[in-house]
Design goal:
This protein has one domain. Helices cover 73% and strands 0% of the residues. It has helices spanning 2-30, 43-48, 51-54, 59-67, 76-89, 93-114. The mean pLDDT is 87.
C-alpha cells in the first residue's frame, strides 16, 4: 500500500515538473516578443485600427465579436482577448504579446495533460 502511494506522489511530481518545464520552454521561445511592437501583417485590422478592439471590453463589443466576421475570419475569443488587453494597457504591444505568451503556456500545458 505504501508503494502505491509513493507511485502516485512520484507521478504527480513528474507531471508537475513536465508542466513547469513546458512553461519555461514556452517562455524562453516567446518571451522575446514582449519587447516587439505590433507588426504590419494583420495587427492593423485586428488590433490598433479596429475601434471595437481599442474601445475595450463592453457588451456591444462582445456581442459584435460573436456575431460578426472580422477580416474574413470568425474568432470571437481572439477578438475578446484583444479587447481585454486594450482595457488596461491600451495599445501597448508588449502587454498584448505577454497575454499571447501566457495563452501559449496555458495551451501547451493543457495539451500535455490531455494527451
Amino acid at each position: 500500500m505504501h508503494q502505491i502511494a509513493r507511485g502516485k506522489l512520484t507521478s504527480r511530481w513528474t507531471l508537475t515538473a513536465v508542466c513547469v518545464c513546458l512553461t519555461v520552454v514556452t517562455w524562453v521561445v516567446f518571451a522575446q516578443t514582449l519587447r516587439y511592437d505590433f507588426i504590419n501583417y494583420d495587427d492593423p485590422q485586428y488590433v490598433y485600427q479596429n475601434t471595437r478592439i481599442t474601445s475595450g471590453i463592453g457588451l456591444s463589443n462582445i456581442a459584435c465579436a460573436f456575431t460578426h466576421i472580422h477580416s474574413g475570419n470568425w474568432h470571437p475569443l481572439t477578438t475578446i482577448t484583444h479587447m481585454l488587453d486594450c482595457q488596461p494597457h491600451a495599445l501597448n504591444a508588449g502587454s498584448h504579446h505577454c497575454t499571447n505568451v501566457l495563452l501559449h503556456c496555458l495551451a501547451v500545458v493543457l495539451l500535455f495533460v490531455a494527451l
